[in-house]
Amino acid sequence: MKPFWKNSAAVSARLAAAPGLLVTLDFDGTLAALAETPGQARLEPEFRAALKELAAAPGVCVFILSGRALPGVRHLVGLRGLYYGGNHGIEIKGPGFAWCDAGALKTRGRVAGIVADMQERFPPGTGVLVENKLFSASVHYRNLKPAFKHGFFNRMRSLMATRGAGLHWRGGHKVFELLPRGAAHKGDAVGLLAKHLGAPLGIAVGDDLTDEDMFKALAGRGLTVRVGRKAGSKAGYFLSGQGEVLRLLRFIAAARDRGGNETDSCGAIQILHAPHAHGSNRAQGV
Question: What is the reported pTM?
């Protein structure tokens, strides 16, 4: 990986010259700082303003692609006219486009069963938070209490060793993700939306293991940026931390404006709501 800002002149030229641009952004750890619990995460106003400006730039489409359920991430960002992807790419919705992985629909009952078991074994007092995101589940252990550490990891090892049921586990930042085996991932989602939009130049920004799927998908033909340097990442560039993402959003918008591209932006951008700092991440359907 190369440091992004030391190579920004070449990147800016490429962004300005492209007929169209699909900017794909992870949410937690990228657009928003990592929080103690998912419900505490928020998008700062300056990030929302920068997203709105970017989405209005010539020829730019913005795709927020998260591990959260789609209604939740859409609520947190609060802008119409963007594309949103939930459950790591299993569901996508935006202007003139809606898609859901048909195979993932079949595993919802099994996901719910494992979620119920984990919630019974590790109630809130243990520091474990189990989320049912309909098509997938997340088991957060950032606040795991020491007294439950042994039992928690023993249970997770047992679950991860169990084959079958059409599901598999992945790790992340203090979280285990339960996903449908063979379902669409972030790389698939980027490719699917790019095809729908006529194959614009892709730029992907993320900070976690699941973001590596979109880095791989864009290797050799797009721009990939990891938040934080990590050995073995497939990203072409890195930022030093999440705080630099705001600068990156403004940089991309400025590059497009300087390019003099007359291509229309993806669509009209509207504020959906004014999210509360620590409110629920649930919302009405897209």
Answer: 0.90
